[in-house]
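FORM 12-B: Structure-to-Sequence Request
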């Protein structure tokens, strides 16, 4: 660290420059701000929207088997998708009650659940393949919904549902990757 006024080298704990007497606190604050900004840039998720801090990733990996459902990344991902599916089902019920020729039927929902239920179960159990498959299926499902419901206009609802659901799945995927890496390193060493 150097004095912002005269450029003299500082030890780092002085508030004033020993050479010129000017305050050096501003430079300390800017250095701290830069390090915080650098650490925030780590672990950016998809499009920089879905992130997990390094500390939280470490916590998730170290306490992988002991975290409760509502605190583990895989549990949060499973609960989020279940909640979104329940809300989607209510929307389908509303559409079918008020629109006689609704584009989405109850059978469409039931067939969709045939894929969702096992994938959600295996995501919760910590299978990386299930996390990837659920993210892919959820994306295809939301694209299909957008195309079915958007014959005359663009449907933002499907995009918003996708963004809400894919974030926790991305975080769960990152945790699964780190957990597997830790297990591999532990078995090798």
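FORM 12-B RESPONSE
SEQUENCE OUT:
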């Amino acid at each position: 660290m150097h004095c912002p006024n005269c450029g003299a080298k500082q030890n780092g704990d002085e508030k004033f420059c020993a050479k010129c007497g000017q305050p050096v606190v501003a430079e300390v604050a800017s250095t701290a701000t830069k390090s915080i900004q650098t650490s925030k840039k780590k672990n950016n998720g998809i499009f920089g929207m879905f992130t997990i801090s390094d500390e939280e990733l470490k916590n998730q990996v170290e306490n992988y088997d002991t975290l409760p459902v509502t605190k583990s990344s895989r549990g949060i991902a499973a609960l989020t998708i279940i909640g979104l599916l329940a809300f989607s089902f209510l929307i389908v019920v509303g559409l079918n009650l008020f629109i006689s020729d609704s584009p989405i039927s109850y059978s469409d929902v039931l067939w969709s659940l045939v894929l969702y239920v096992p994938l959600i179960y295996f995501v919760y159990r910590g299978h990386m393949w299930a996390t990837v498959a659920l993210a892919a299926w959820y994306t295809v499902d939301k694209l299909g919904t957008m195309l079915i419901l958007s014959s005359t206009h663009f449907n933002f609802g499907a995009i918003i549902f996708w963004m809400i659901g894919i974030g926790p799945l991305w975080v769960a995927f990152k945790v699964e990757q780190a957990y597997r890496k830790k297990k591999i390193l532990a078995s090798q060493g």
